[in-house]
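Q: What residues go here?
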């Protein structure tokens, strides 16, 4: 990055100086900045620093046209500032070209015309005339400009807001001379003590422009399987063997061994690399086709190439009617093979790590791959651009092989692992600029790999699959296979809170489908257990007695409808009918049907408008606090509070032999307390006697005997109904 350290604007603008002197000093500093900036090579464009057009990726659609929006005769100070900011965003912040172009173009087309209306020379002046820094604008002035832009365009210029936020945060950087251009800049959100994202949300709400963000769709398991199957073939023959050296570096972990070089795809591509190394680009293809060793190599791996893809094998030679070139492998075939090899590896890494597009693109070969001798696992170390933190992701052998393959494919001096081009037939001296791949390019190449195998990444809603969809896919896989999904995703994806991973799960159609299926299974099992308990007359409580009466009527109805049924058939039919009724109630949300901490099932109707015994106290306290009467909510359903369940004292509570074992365990405990503490001379073993002697004062001090006696009286009858056959006679005292 540039290293420009100049006097600040405040030091230049002394009160005793004339306007001409101020202007001349300012332009002297500006000239210094320009001279320093011109020495800095531009890695992302072939244009020069002072050119009025900067073209990215050799595409006219991705370019910054400075002269079109900023007249160099008047707006040279602003142009120089925006150019330096562009360099910073690309080389330091690693933002995608399209993102930077969009932000800069937005600023020039929206903010600059608004500045013209102010009639003040903010970073605008002819040679040696004084100009004002961006900090001259008050926060209210900037808010006024932003509101006007929104009203005129009918939409908020989010790119413009974002670039203003970056300008504010970077104004103290002396390396690029930003302090000279933006001294004193305060944005409206900083002035209000908030942040850019909150201010943007407020503006959207103010102008009614809030729209629901469409979540990224995950790929189906079928699509993933279709991608992984061919991608794994490219990794055949590559070894995964951690070194015995405890301090082995990442770059050493990534290096190929001799056996790796004999892997099918590596041996083929390596032969091409070797020939290209010792020949010009015009001779390379001819020499490869004439090379006897290469011909033997191709014959040896004929079947392997066909397995990579039949079309790839068929396109290896020219048309038979082309006599001069018949049997010759085309340059385009080699280029294609290098490209799909690279992106077979990228697909495997993306599916294994769930890294964002930008983090995947900037994986560093010198730091990314490590092996833990302690835990015997491989892991990827990734520095996240969005959250500025470092995460460690455990990976399996396929991802290790893919990382090694990408490292071997690296052509340029940069340690960036996924480079824009991994092989060039043509000579190219500017190797650095070819090392970096844009976000859209990575998405395009992922799509190309899929298309090569006839796999569509287009979703039913018409959206195209991207790298972030792979991230959503991995999130969905974790969500379907782990009860700790949110915690795992938080660590795996490097989120700073639990909300973001929860959104990946909440909006993930595969997770939703999986959870719905599991929910249906759970509901069906629960309904079956309740129905069986009722049919077997293994229920208790007020609700249990009601259900037994209803089941008796159903049983008689079934008998009358078909008198040929045996008692066993009637029982089975009754269980099925009861299950269907209960399951429909659950699915249609007609009853709560949930197991409470008190070991009873809450069967409260969902349309019940009175307070349940478990929620009455809390509801009353909240109403009193709010100053409203119960009558105001007389027609609204009132939810129960399972945490405050009162057990079988509630008319909606159902006790069953299957689900109320915790009640029996509690009854057993209170029974032991009661009996052993009221009859100390009874025949008990020494350990129990010691326990009672030790804790008797505590039991008595906490009035636990009264509590035990109360509990036994409350539950003895119901538990006797359910568990009399499992306890000695007289145990329940009924």
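A:
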């Amino acid at each position: 990055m540039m290293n420009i350290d100049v006097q600040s604007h405040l030091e230049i603008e002394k009160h005793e100086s004339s306007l001409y002197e101020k202007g001349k000093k300012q332009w002297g500093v500006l000239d210094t900045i320009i001279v320093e900036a011109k020495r800095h090579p531009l890695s992302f464009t072939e244009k020069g620093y002072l050119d009025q057009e900067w073209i990215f990726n050799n595409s006219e659609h991705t370019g910054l046209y400075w002269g079109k929006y900023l007249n160099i005769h008047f707006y040279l100070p602003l142009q120089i500032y925006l150019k330096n900011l562009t360099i910073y965003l690309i080389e330091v912040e690693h933002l995608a070209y399209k993102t930077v172009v969009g932000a800069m173009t937005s600023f020039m087309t929206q903010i600059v015309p608004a500045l013209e209306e102010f009639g003040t020379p903010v970073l605008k002046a002819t040679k040696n005339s004084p100009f004002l820094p961006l900090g001259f604008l008050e926060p209210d002035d900037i808010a006024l400009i932003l509101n006007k832009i929104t009203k005129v365009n009918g939409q908020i210029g989010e790119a413009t807001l974002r670039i203003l936020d970056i300008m504010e945060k970077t104004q103290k950087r002396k390396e690029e001379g930003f302090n000279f251009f933006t001294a004193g800049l305060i944005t409206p959100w900083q002035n209000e003590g908030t942040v850019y994202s909150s201010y943007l949300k407020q503006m959207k709400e103010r102008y009614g422009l809030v729209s629901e963000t469409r979540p990224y769709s995950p790929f189906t398991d079928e699509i993933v399987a279709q991608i992984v199957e061919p991608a794994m073939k490219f990794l055949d023959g590559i070894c995964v063997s951690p070194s015995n050296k405890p301090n082995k570096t990442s770059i050493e972990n990534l290096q190929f061994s001799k056996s790796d070089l004999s892997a099918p795809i590596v041996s083929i591509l390596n032969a091409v690399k070797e020939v290209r190394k010792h020949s010009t680009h015009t001779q390379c293809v001819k020499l490869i086709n004439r090379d006897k060793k290469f011909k033997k190599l191709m014959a040896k791996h004929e079947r392997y190439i066909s397995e990579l893809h039949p079309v790839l094998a068929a396109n290896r030679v020219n048309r038979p009617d082309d006599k001069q070139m018949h049997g010759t492998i085309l340059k385009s075939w080699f280029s294609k093979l290098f490209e799909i090899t690279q992106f077979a590896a990228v697909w495997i890494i993306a599916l294994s790590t769930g890294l964002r597009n930008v983090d995947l693109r900037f994986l560093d070969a010198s730091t990314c791959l490590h092996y833990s001798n302690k835990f015997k696992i491989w892991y990827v170390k990734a520095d996240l651009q969005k959250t500025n933190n470092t995460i460690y992701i455990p990976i399996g052998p396929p991802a290790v092989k893919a990382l090694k393959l990408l490292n071997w494919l690296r052509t340029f001096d940069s340690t960036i692992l996924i480079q824009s081009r991994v092989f060039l037939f043509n000579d190219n001296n500017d190797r650095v600029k070819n090392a970096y791949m844009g976000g859209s390019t990575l998405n395009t190449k992922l799509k190309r790999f899929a298309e090569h195998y006839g796999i569509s990444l287009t979703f039913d809603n018409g959206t195209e699959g991207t790298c972030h969809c792979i991230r959503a896919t991995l999130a969905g896989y974790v969500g379907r296979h782990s009860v700790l999904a949110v915690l795992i995703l938080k660590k795996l994806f490097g989120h700073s809170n639990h909300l973001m991973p929860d959104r990946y799960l909440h909006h993930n159609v595969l997770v939703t489908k999986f959870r719905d299926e599991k929910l249906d299974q759970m509901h069906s099992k629960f309904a079956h257990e309740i129905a069986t308990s009722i049919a077997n007359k293994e229920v208790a409580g007020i609700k249990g007695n009601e259900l037994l009466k209803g089941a008796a009527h159903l049983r008689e109805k079934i008998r009358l409808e078909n008198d040929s049924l045996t008692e066993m058939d009637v029982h089975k039919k009754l269980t099925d009918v009861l299950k269907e009724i209960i399951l429909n109630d659950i699915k249609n949300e007609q009853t709560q049907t949930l197991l409470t901490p008190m070991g009873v099932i809450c069967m409260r109707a969902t349309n019940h408008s009175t307070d349940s015994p478990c929620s009455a106290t809390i509801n009353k306290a909240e109403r009193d606090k709010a100053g409203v009467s119960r009558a105001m909510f007389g027609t609204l359903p009132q939810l129960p509070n399972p945490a405050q369940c009162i057990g079988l004292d509630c008319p909606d509570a159902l006790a069953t032999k299957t689900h109320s074992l915790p009640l029996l365990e509690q009854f057993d405990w209170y029974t032991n307390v009661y009996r052993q503490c009221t009859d100390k001379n009874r025949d008990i073993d020494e350990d129990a006697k010691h326990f009672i002697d030790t804790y008797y004062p505590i039991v008595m001090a906490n009035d636990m005997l009264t509590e035990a006696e109360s509990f036994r009286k409350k539950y003895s009858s119901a538990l006797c109904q359910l568990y009399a056959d499992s306890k000695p006679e007289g145990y329940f005292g009924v």
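A: Context that may help when evaluating the design: The mean pLDDT is 78. The beta strands are 53-56, 59-65, 369-372, 377-383, 390-395, 539-540, 594-595, 601-602, 653-656.
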